[in-house]
Protein 1
Amino acid sequence: SQQGEEDPQALSIQEGENATMNCSYKTSINNLQWYRQNSGRGLVHLILIRSNEREKHSGRLRVTLDTSKKSSSLLITASRAADTASYFCAAGGGADGLTFGKGTHLIIQP
Amino acid sequence: EPEVTQTPSHQVTQMGQEVILRCVPISNHLYFYWYRQILGQKVEFLVSFYNNEISEKSEIFDDQFSVERPDGSNFTLKIRSTKLEDSAMYFCASSERQYSNQPQHFGDGTRLSIL
C-alpha cells in the first residue's frame, strides 16, 4: 500500500516556534497530501504536492517532497495555539481512496 | 464555505443491530467516500462511490457493509449485524473529481459505539 507514516508521533512546542513533521511512504506516488484534524472534528485538507514538485508554500505552511527518499515534510512557521491538532500525510486518492499515516499530534504551548 | 455534514454525531447500538450512517456531501461534488478510524489508529479507506455505484472498496468493506445514494443529496453507509469491533469514528468525504490530485472534503464524523 502507499502508506504514509509520520514522525514524530507527538510534538510539543512554544507558540511562535516552528514545527516540522515528517512523513515517509513506501511506493511511488503521483502526489502527497497533508491534512489536519482538530480534536473531535473531521480532516481538513491543507496542501497537495505533486511528485514533480520539490517544495510548495501555502501561507505559514511549507511542504517539501523528496521522491528519492520517499519522504515529505510539513513545516508550520510562527506557530499559534490554534495550530494544535493532529497532522496526517496521505498518499493515493482517487477511486482507491487515501492512505493515511498515524499522524503527528502537535501541541502548541501558549 | 460548503461543507460535508454527517448525522448522527454519535450513535450507540446494540451488537447485532443494523445501523445507518448518513452524509450530505458538498452539492457539486460527484465522488463520495467512507473512511473509518478506530480509536488510536489510522484513518482507513472503506469505499468510494461514483455514478450510483461503488468504484473501489477495501478489504474492510465486506458483505456486512453497503452504501447507497437514495436521493440527490444523501449518501449512506449501512452496517448490518454490527460487531463490537465496528466501534469507530466513521467519516464521509467528497471530492469534485475522482483524481488523486483532488482534495477530499471530510465531514466531522459519526462516532459509532457498539455495546
Protein 2
Amino acid sequence: EAGVAQSPRYKIIEKRQSVAFWCNPISGHATLYWYQQILGQGPKLLIQFQNNGVVDDSQLPKDRFSAERLKGVDSTLKIQPAKLEDSAVYLCASSLTHGQVGTQYFGPGTRLLVL
Amino acid sequence: SQQGEEDPQALSIQEGENATMNCSYKTSINNLQWYRQNSGRGLVHLILIRSNEREKHSGRLRVTLDTSKKSSSLLITASRAADTASYFCATDARGNAGKSTFGDGTTLTVKP
C-alpha cells in the first residue's frame, strides 16, 4: 500500500512570497489533516478535511493560509504572503475513519524556510 | 494550550535499558495515541489505547492509561539504538471527535 505523498520535500522562499504544498493521501482515506510542526515542538493541526469538506480549521491563519481538497482526494496548502515565523515542517496525514480518531498515517513532510 | 504534555523532554539511556516516558493531559479523552518521529521524517503510529483500557502491549512497547490521573506512560523495553527518536502522545478529547492534539514530545537517545 502506497503511503502519504507530499511535495516538495524542501522549499526556501523570501518573506512576502507565496508557496504551495501538495499532498496525496492513502487511497480510500476519507480524512486528511495538515499540521504545522515548528522545530522542537509537536505537530499543530491547521486544517482537517472529511472528503472535500472542512471539519476543523480553527487554528488556520486564514489571512494568509488557505487549503483545498478538490474531489476529496489530493489537497493543497497555500501560504500567501509568507512570514518568517512560517518556517516549519508542514505535515500531511490521512486516516480511514472519522468521528473517533483512527490511526493517522503521515507523509514525510515539507520543510519550509522563509528568509 | 497543549492537551498532552510529555515528560521528560529528553531522555538518554544505554542500549538494552528500558525507557519510560509519560504523557499528561487536561480533559477527558476518547483515546490516546503514541507516535514516533525519527529525525527529519514523518510521524509513525505506534499504539492506540482507548479510554476504557488500562494497558496495551505491542512487541517491546507497553502503554498504560490512568484516566483518574489523566496520564499515560510508554515503556520501551530492551531499547536499541534504532529506537532513538522523538515520541509524541496525541489525545482525542471527548466531544472533539476526529481531532488529535499532540504534545511537544520526548526526545529519546539510545547509546550503543
